[in-house]
Amino acid sequence: MNLANRITLARIFLVPIIMFFLLVNLKFPQIKIDEFSITYNQIFAALIFIIAAWTDGLDGYIARKRKLVTNLGKLLDPLADKLLVSAVLVSLVEMDKVGAWIVIVIISREFAVTGLRQIALLEGHVIAASKWGKWKTAAQITAIIALLINNFPFAFINLRFDLFASWIAAIITLYSGFDYFIKNKHVINFNE
Fold first, then answer.
1. Fewer Cβ atoms within 10 Å of its own Cβ: the N or the C terminal residue of the chain?
2. pTM for this entry
């Protein structure tokens, strides 16, 4: 269990903590500025989510820099990412902050690409992360943060950045999924 894998595991363990702050009413007071309001729960959840999302880049950097890339890390890292994003998005649906259809699109794409990667692995191929996969991750994290913090600071100028970011995340997520399947269609044997 090297440092990179420990960081990845820490990201997994942060998921229930984020969900706790999002879904359990701790009766903390709200912060209100004119029409804008946010709970301390949301602030704590957003800060922990930002730290968890940051560790995604950190564990990969450490693994490559120190030559600590392991099969366990290759398995845990994408799993940790999917758990983090999926859990927070489902929580945001429960909080009525994002449409369920957007979350279904995002989670479905994650399952589909994971399945493709598993098939490729069984065929002896490794599907590396594409630039669209990285854009997808950045778009999802941006949208989630905007939703977690109630569209701050854009709420003050009546700009629905959170909604816009959610749509962009869904579109890039769909496109990146199609991109993976088109570029890796050779690993799928439809005759079996």
1. C
2. 0.91
